[in-house]
Amino acid sequence: MTSLLISLIIAGVLLLLTFFGYYNKFIVLTQRIKNSKAQINVQLKKRSDLIPNLVNIVKGYMKHEKSLLTEVTKARTSFLNAKNFEEKVKVGSELQHSLKNLFAVAENYPEVKANQSFVELQREVSAIEDKIAYSRQYYNDSIMTYNNSIEVIPGKWFASLYHFKKENYFEIPEEEKINPVIEF
Amino acid sequence: MNRTSFYEEIRRNKIKSYFLLVIVFLVLLSLVYTISLVAGPDYFFMILIFGTIFSIFYVLISYNSSSKIVLASVKAIKAEQEQFKTYHNLVEGLCLASGLEKPKLYVMKDTQINAFASGKNPKEAIICVTTGALEKLTKQELEGVLSHELSHIANYDIRFMSLVAVLVGLISIISQIFLRSLFFGVGSSNRSEKNNVIYILIALALAIISPLIVALVQLAISRKREYLADSSAVKFVRSPTGLIGALQKIKQESKTNVRIPDAISPLFLVKPYNSKELFQTHPDINKRIELLKKM
Fold first, then answer.
1. Could you give the C-alpha distances from B17 to A85, A125, B11, B20, B169, in angstroms and in order?
2. What is the mean pLDDT of residues B265-285?
3. How far apart are CA B169 and CA B183, in angstroms?
4. Residue A7 in this model has a pLDDT that exceeds 90
5. Residues A118, A112: contact at Cβ < 8 Å?
6. Are B176 and B54 in contact (CB under 8 A)?
7. Cα A184 → chain centroid
8. For residues A14 and A17, what is the distance between their CA atoms, to the nearest angstrom?
């Protein structure tokens, strides 16, 4: 009789641990998605912070490229005004596009290219762009791990029990898939 | 040429290294079993406890101070953020890609291209590269190398190899104790003479052979962890090109001399000397390039 009781208790404890374990697993995984999302934000913000400096340096040399510079500044303003994550990412890629144009045109200005601070900033922007790409990749990886965990059995049952739902992957605008090559 | 995904490669190498770990366990168990047959369980139990404590103690010391020891022995210096911007930027990017914390970065003065990672967990990890690697590799190649090192950290390779070292050490300690105690005539307890001779011979053979076998298995595990780090490196950067380029450059310069001591060579990106693969901590560089090209 006691041995039956003991095995029942053990079975009960194991079952309870499984229930807790799955809940915690989902929490950890959704937390990871949140964190990686925050990382994308941090990098996007860092890039936009570099822009006033960049524009200041280039302004003097590139007098005939006013429209380019206003485009960059405008993209930055709309990034700063963006309210939610999706919007930030969207205008962020516009910002990236206009920066790419700016750097391409700067190639024609030897004085700009000789400016040490400009070279520094250009390198910084390119490093941040790599980091943005990586944090997006990690974001998508985290979503994949999470989605896998709630789609396989028995994770699926627990997920529906705790109301965890599938997350959507990050959509990358078409043109960005071609990596901008910035050579020094 | 069959293309394989890095996910598949990662999975395969993990399974293989765990399988090899099981072999080490089995060798340990059979050694334990035969010796206890010869010497009697009581006596054997004592060896086992003593051996375990000694082996764990021995490995724990090197495990806890591994980073410090290795950094001091290659005279590595801290890589300052200002001076080594690209190095820092690349590692920061890879940390974002892998979700790891940024390790402490070091540089060692050496014209050869090489790198190593150490640390018992991702929080206390370090990465060190040679000045040669920083000078000779392109940004993409350096990124491949750093990604490989970061993979060692992500896969807890230092911990895994320490566990293997404990088991291998345990086997050799048990064998030593048994071989020595034979001179004092242990085991002439309660069995018939004839049986006992056979058991003693088997135990003797096992005690001599098993340390050699597990030493070779240990090397094989180390090589599997290298392949694993290669495929995880591809997972982080999503392209094998950088690492392939770096390995090719290393291959070309590998004819030159080496100053890295044998004792710490298992940690490095590539083995710093040449000999037969069976006795190596690292797989053949050509095989690594070939596998990477398939991903």
1. 42, 41, 10, 5, 18
2. 69
3. 22
4. yes
5. yes
6. no
7. 26
8. 5
Kind and range of the H or E element at A4?
helix A2-61
What is the rounded CA–CA span in Å between residue B65 and residue B264? Answer: 13
Number of Cβ within a 10 Å radius of residue B64: 13
Q: What is the ipTM score, two decimals?
A: 0.78
User: Which of B96, B100, B139 is the best mutation test for A, with the most CBs of A within 10 A?
Assistant: B96
| Confidence band of A184 (pLDDT split at 50, 70, 90) | very low
Backbone angles phi, psi at B275, to 5 degrees: -170, -170
Catalytic residue (one of B9, B141, B143, B149): B149
Q: For residue B134, which of B126, B123, B125, B142 has the smallest C-alpha distance?
A: B142
Q: How far apart are CA B237 and CA B241, in angstroms?
A: 9
At residue B176, the pLDDT reads 86
A156 touches chain B (CB under 8 A): no
pTM given for the model? 0.82
Q: Could you give the angle at which helices A155-162 and A116-151 cross, rounded to 10 degrees? A: 100
For residues B93 and A33, give the distance between their C-alpha atoms in angstroms, rounded to a whole number. Answer: 17
Whether residues B93 and A123 touch (CB distance < 8 A) is answered with no
Q: List C-alpha distances in Å: A1 to A4, A12, A14, A15, B290.
A: 5, 17, 20, 21, 63
